Amino acid sequence: MTIAIATADLDWVREDPKDQLLKEALDARSLRSSRVPWDADIDWSSFDAVVVSTTWDYHERIAEFLVWIDRVAATTTMWNPPELIRWNADKAYLIEMSEAGVPVIPTVATPTVGSVIDAVDIWGVDQVVIKPVVSASARGTAMFQGDDIVGISDHMASFPDAMIAQPYQPAVETTGEASLVYFNGQYSHAVRKVPTAGDFRTQTHLGGTLSPVEPAPTERAVAELVLGSIAERPLYARIDLVEGVDGPLLIELELIEPALYLPLCSGAPARFAAAIAARLRERTHC
To answer: Does the pTM of the predicted model rise above 0.85?
Structure first.
């Protein structure tokens, strides 16, 4: 079996250890693998499966990327599958999950500044977070006072994409976010992400810090509710939660190319490789 680990042909992506750790874990199971840029001109059917891993520029080329996943999945197995990736690529999925009963940070589509102001009034909050529906690594994510019409308007005008708005969650400044990682629907590990002082974004390139953590039972329960609401079981999933007034709330469900924090959690690469091996066996027995 030969597996393609789909990546991006960028220096900073090549320096990340995620793909190498996965490759070593696959080697230990006698599963051959290669890192391949997702936009490479190759015959993808030569691989038994493609794992979308570090395609970390996809959001900047979203139309091209969505065409690519469909084209590749027509020739070989892809994880996560195109249907999940396409659904997850638009953050409006949060609205859908909330309507299905998942505890999600209140989220509204924001076609106009007026819709943001109306939402802030309904929520009864002082601060609002606005982000593009297609983004990664906090691109385009900004916080405003709820009555800052000029700031909100300028920010929305600077992005051609549709946007969503959410009430700011103060707990992110203290307890941060909990990121729970699942392989094949089974819990693997979790980390706590805390922003640097004066910021609310937890990404490490913005000064955020990461540490392994044992999630609270309430966090596990919400994460598993999130997983249970997905149309099909993903090979990998990262579920980002923040503590709300009444318990954990979903911030993001990452099904495309999430950082999985493999170096921080002993055994995580092996569990990821085991999940891939199990999927390959399932496919063989179908």
So the answer is: yes
